[in-house]
Amino acid sequence: MPTVLTIDPNFGWSVLAALAMGVQCFVAGGTVAAARKKYNVPHPDCGAGRHASKLSDEDWKKFNVIQRCHLNYVEMLSLAQSSVLLAGLFFPRVAGALGLSYIFGRFLYARGYVGSNPQARAPGFMIALISNVGMIGAAGYGALQLLGYL
């Protein structure tokens, strides 16, 4: 039997969270562009090519930390955005809060990773991971409810 989808106005929080994730990732990409200019590592060198091999060890590490921080965000972005939107269909306030928590975790991750050393990313990573698992869980739970299994 068909189900009518009524979108709760609070779903807007999930949409805003998904948009903020995209903007945050875009800004992280801007830091890579600035690092490319600063360390003279043009495209398509991703930090392991001819241009990067001319950097000192310290500059090579600084560039690659910035590059990896952004690429890690890109790797996780589609899962985080789809999860916050799908979870928001069923639990809009919970999804919005988890999305905000994810964004905060990604901020701490980047600040720790780029700002001091790669191990300093751990607190932000854990916050983002737990938030993402929560969004996935909420979306899955809502889907199982919709299917009549719960």
From TrEMBL:
Stored Gene3D superfamilies: Membrane associated eicosanoid/glutathione metabolism-like domain
Keywords: Membrane, Transmembrane, Transmembrane helix
Localization annotation: Membrane
Membrane topology: Multi-pass membrane protein
Molecular function (Gene Ontology), one example: glutathione transferase activity
Transmembrane spans: 12-35, 84-104, 124-144
Superkingdom of the organism of origin: Eukaryota
Listed Pfam families: MAPEG
InterPro entries hit by this protein: MAPEG, MAPEG-like_dom_sf, Membr-assoc_MAPEG
Main location: membrane
GO CC, alphabetical: endoplasmic reticulum; membrane; nuclear envelope
Keyword field contains Transmembrane helix: yes
Full protein name: Microsomal glutathione S-transferase 3
Organism of derivation: Tieghemiomyces parasiticus
Taxonomic path: Eukaryota, Fungi, Fungi incertae sedis, Zoopagomycota, Kickxellomycotina
